[in-house]
Amino acid sequence: MRKYIFHFFALLFGIAAVYHLAGLFYPVNNAPLWRHALFVIINAGCVYGLLKRPKWFAYVFFAFTIQQLNSHGASLIDNWNLHHKIAWIDLSVVLITPLIFLALLSEQMNSN
Q: Tens of pLDDT along 2-15?
């Protein structure tokens, strides 16, 4: 069961990589091109990490989780304060990313 959960999470990161790849050729948001290029690489790395789950990946994913909470969390709050709208992508990232980290941590703790 756990394997399928990580495969689902990897699929989400694959979709995010495609989104950022599209951002290199079409204005999907106001992020600069370098940021889209960076997140194509990061998301592809997360696909690898979630499928292979090397022991070090949980630590790297923790740093990524903090970055995502900071970035998407701030965007979520700004959209609500300025427009009184929920930015669904931001909300999804803020909810799902820590869950993925907890799943990685749980797997590591149970494998010892």
A: 889 999 999 999 99
Q: Cα–Cα distance between 20 and 56 in angstroms, integer?
A: 25
**Residue 40 C-beta-side C-alpha neighbours within 13 Å:** 15
Copy the structure tokens of residue 99. Answer: 């869950």
Give percent helix, percent strand, percent coil of the chain, each to the nearest 5: 85, 0, 15
Contact 31, 4 (CB under 8 A): no
SS3 call for 53: coil
- Exposure pattern of 81-93 as b/e (b: 16+ CB <10 Å)? eeeeeebeebbeb
